[in-house]
């Protein structure tokens, strides 16, 4: 067996250093090492923020506002709605968008890989897709297929998202999840700081109609909402309960959220669980009809289809 040679000893004896001076020298050396390590850490952090992991945020494209709004509606062709009804939903969005210079986006259930999660999660992926597809849009509006836009005169950026309008109507210091959640909406939130607009019904937050301001925060929000952990929790109401969870546990999300009266963007046709539609409201939703049947939804929607078509012709 071979052994390494021992290190060669220096022929000169080591210089004698008093114990007190030795401790001083060691302390000075340890401090120098500490400062060196700290300096390397901050240099690395600066690099990551400016050249590495933070580069996506620092160079993100600023939306130009063309189009001002994109309307996203996920179409479920597998849910036994008639082709006539689904076409009326598409035409409703298209006519409204053309009037105001907006765009529409109609992804389908099944377009995205959800890895076993319920199909209702499609809306979250569709919103992420819309941010990529329309990088210059100012706002993305998600609106379920169980609804019609009823008032063609109302523009989203004025009727809802204008800062002074938001400040006048947002519901402040209010339980996020009714009736008595201890987590409440911010009392002093400014309209210009709002990036997410939601409504509540008596069950909780509604995800059938909501507005999102395009930007870095929107990307963060959707990535958080679609986290695999939340999709795997098996929440009773899937993405809706996941949203309520993250709103209550993430102040970064709550700080950008405004609750507005339900009739602003999410009035119900008839329901004991929420605010009912009144003529002049922007939207009507047939929110509970699917519990009966898709035919019940179409029957409930039929008279309102005639109403919106007449309103758009006369606009």
Automatic annotation (TrEMBL):
<keyword id="KW-0808">Transferase</keyword>
<feature type="transmembrane region" description="Helical">
    <location>
        <begin position="32"/>
        <end position="50"/>
    </location>
</feature>
<dbReference type="GO" id="GO:0000136">
    <property type="term" value="C:mannan polymerase complex"/>
</dbReference>
<dbReference type="GO" id="GO:0000009">
    <property type="term" value="F:alpha-1,6-mannosyltransferase activity"/>
</dbReference>
<keyword id="KW-0472">Membrane</keyword>
<keyword id="KW-1133">Transmembrane helix</keyword>
<dbReference type="InterPro" id="IPR008630">
    <property type="entry name" value="Glyco_trans_34"/>
</dbReference>
<dbReference type="GO" id="GO:0006487">
    <property type="term" value="P:protein N-linked glycosylation"/>
</dbReference>
<keyword id="KW-0812">Transmembrane</keyword>
<comment type="similarity">
    <text>Belongs to the glycosyltransferase 34 family.</text>
</comment>
<keyword id="KW-0328">Glycosyltransferase</keyword>
<protein>
    <recommendedName>
        <fullName>Alpha-1,2-galactosyltransferase gmh3</fullName>
    </recommendedName>
</protein>
<dbReference type="Pfam" id="PF05637">
    <property type="entry name" value="Glyco_transf_34"/>
</dbReference>
<dbReference type="InterPro" id="IPR029044">
    <property type="entry name" value="Nucleotide-diphossugar_trans"/>
</dbReference>
